[in-house]
Amino acid sequence: MSSPNALSALARIRQDVQGMHAYAVQDAAGMVKLDAMENPYPLPEALQAALGERLGRVAIHRYPGPRVQDLRDALARYVDLPAGCSLMLGNGSDELISLLALACDVPGASVLAPVPGFVMYAMSAQLQGLPFHGVPLTADFELDEAAMRSAIEAHRPAITYLAYPNNPTANLWDAGVIRRLIADVARVGGIVVMDEAYSPFSSHSWLSEMRADPAANAHVLLMRTLSKFGLAGVRLGYMLGASELVAEIDKVRPPYNISALNAECALFALEHADVFARQAQDICQQRGELMAALQAMPGVHPFPSQANMLLVRVPDADAAFQRMKQAGVLVKNVSKMHPLLAACLRLTVGTPTENAQMLAALRNAL
Q1: What is the mean pLDDT of residues 67-86?
Q2: How far apart are alpha carbons 29 and 325 in whole angstroms?
Q3: DSSP 231
Q4: What one-character DSSP code corresponds to residue 107?
Q5: Alpha carbon 176 to its chain's center
Q6: Digit-coded pLDDT (tens) for 320-352
Q7: Would you give the distance in Å from CA 276 to the centre of its chain?
Q8: What is the pTM of this model?
Q9: Helix, strand, coil: what percent of the chain each, to 5?
């Protein structure tokens, strides 16, 4: 039983926070883990040894120092940072999303995004006390241009998120529609955040648009993470955009938010970017083979993907999820996340062996 003091202390915690559901991470012990869009390939053994030796030399008795700036410089080279742009780092893109809400919390501010989408857009807005406006996608998971434009005009959001590709639907939206929405947001004085968490597996990046027309994209921030690159355990995100805009948002970033070990891991990975690029290429090939197998499976409807995941509609998502879990394969049941996702599962693309196990489990589950 809770003590009176604990109950009294709980009263100091915001009621909306007490009413929230915490972000749930599924227990994957002993499972084929295909629920979180992780790169399934570990570092080759020779690189593991080299990284271990390198991390052993990191001055962990000191606060992170110049190596964090070295990482910013390395990422700027890696993305070929456009002229007039700067780059800031976050402890995963989750922290960047929270920092954006913090920096943009002015009277009347709100956050807008298509739904279904990444849950942290709405959660970060709520935690900062900002209204969140979710605009439903169409039935085939495309942007509802008329509804988005109407919502931008009505709410004049401080931040509009466009995930490119989207999570959990895995698709790229029409570039012409996005250009028009970016122009609409400019007219209401807002910021557009293009979230490219899945860029290693995508055929297009909005960075090319930012280079081609910097004036039209001056209020656009592009956000990425190294989690899908292959460093989910390192927790490293980055965001780039016009230098004057990034400089203001960077003011709310906590000092030393990137650990010296995280920075060194990320620098090491960028020095071996070719290894991760080959892994991404293999994942894209596996994605195509998975798509073909799912299309041939009676009762299963897979949706087009530009990420390292596939959204599939099945006759009974709850039953299929539980049966796959009983068979030792963990995927994500997204069927309750939004009405448009009814009867849907999200499958991470794994290794050939993992994918074969997942397909066999799904066949048996159906």
Answers
A1: 96
A2: 11
A3: I
A4: T
A5: 23
A6: 999 999 999 999 999 999 999 999 999 999 999
A7: 18
A8: 0.93
A9: 45, 15, 40
Give the 3-state DSSP-derived string for 73-89, with helices as H, strands as E and coil as C: HHHHHHHCCCCCEEEEE
In angstroms, the Cα distances linking 115 to 41, 136, 363 are 31, 5, 29
Q: Which domains does the chain have, with CATH numbers?
A: 23-39+274-365 (3.90.1150.10), 58-271 (3.40.640.10)
Residue that has been written with the tokens 């271990």 in this structure: 52
* Radius of gyration in angstroms for the set of CA atoms belonging to the chain, rounded to a whole number: 21
Using alpha carbons, select from 88, 76, 140 the residue that is nearest to residue 114: 140
Please give the average per-residue pLDDT across 285-314, as a whole number: 97
Q: Give the pLDDT confidence score for residue 5 in this predicted structure.
A: 72
**pLDDT at 290 > cutoff 60:** yes
Classify residue 64 as exposed, middle or buried by CB count within 10 Å of its CB (0-12, 13-18, 19+): buried
pLDDT in tens, 230-245: 889 999 999 999 999 9
Q: Do you find a cis peptide bond into 40, omega within 30 degrees of 0? A: no
Please answer whether residues 349 and 343 qualify as being in contact, where contact means their C-beta atoms are separated by less than 8 angstroms.
no
pLDDT number for residue 1: 45
CA gap 214, 222 in Å, rounded: 13
Can you tell me whether residue 197 is helix, strand or coil?
Answer: coil
Three-state SS at 306: coil
Helices (H), the chain: 4-10, 15-18, 45-56, 66-79, 92-103, 119-127, 145-155, 175-187, 207-212, 243-250, 260-271, 273-295, 317-326, 352-365
